[in-house]
Amino acid sequence: MFQKTAATLGASLALLGGFAMFDVEPQTAHGAGRGRVCTRDHGYLGKLNIRSEPTVRADPPVMQVRPGTPYVDLGDTVYEDGYVWHRIAIKNTSGWAAGRYLC
């Protein structure tokens, strides 16, 4: 019944007849490696918040970065708040970023 892959973890939960069914938002699969911040690819023109924990409630951000900023994906992922979070490093700082904004 559930045919979702780790690369497509995403958003909402609906309860149907006592069963939980996830309707997920596709997100790019990442792993340890390099990439760039791509907020503009998703219609968001602002800076991306890099957070201390994998949640939108982790304020203030440890840094904000512009689209196109290179990063190193450290290989850790967590699903929280409707996002797949990736632990990344930019220069000498590491933190968590929502996977939908990483390319």
What does this structure look like?
The chain contains no helices and eight strands. By secondary structure, it is mainly β. The protein has a domain at 30-101: Roll (SH3 type barrels), CATH 2.30.30. A four-stranded antiparallel sheet has the order 3-6-7-8, with no helix packed on it. The protein has a two-stranded antiparallel sheet with strand order 1-2. The protein has a two-stranded antiparallel ribbon with strand order 4-5. Strand 1 (12-16) and strand 2 (19-23) form a beta hairpin. It starts with 11 loop residues before the first strand and ends in a 5-residue tail after the last strand.
Overall shape: it is globular
Q: Please give the CATH architecture of one domain.
A: Roll
The biggest beta sheet reads: 4 strands, antiparallel
CATH topology of one domain: SH3 type barrels
Structural classification: mainly beta
Mean pLDDT: 76
Secondary structure tally, helices: 0
The quaternary structure here is single chain
Numbering strands along the chain, what is their spatial order in the largest sheet? 3-6-7-8
pLDDT < 50 runs, ≥5 residues: 1-29
CATH class of one domain: Mainly Beta
| Global Rg | 14 Å
